[in-house]
């Protein structure tokens, strides 16, 4: 599996997890942690996408 596909899966997993945590407890500190990890994954996805388009 390509790295970009792995990152896509990670993004979807993190989004789902953040939604589940938020619906159970909107004040949870886990939301911030998940959000930061999701942001990093989205930045990585954008970088990988940009590099694959320039090839």
TrEMBL record:
GO biological process: regulation of sporulation
Signal sequence bounds: none
Pfam families associated with the record: SpoOE-like
Record Gene3D superfamilies: Helix-loop-helix DNA-binding domain (4.10.280.10)
GO MF entries: protein dimerization activity
Entry superkingdom: Bacteria
Protein name, UniProt field: Spo0E like sporulation regulatory protein
Organism, as annotated: Sediminibacillus halophilus
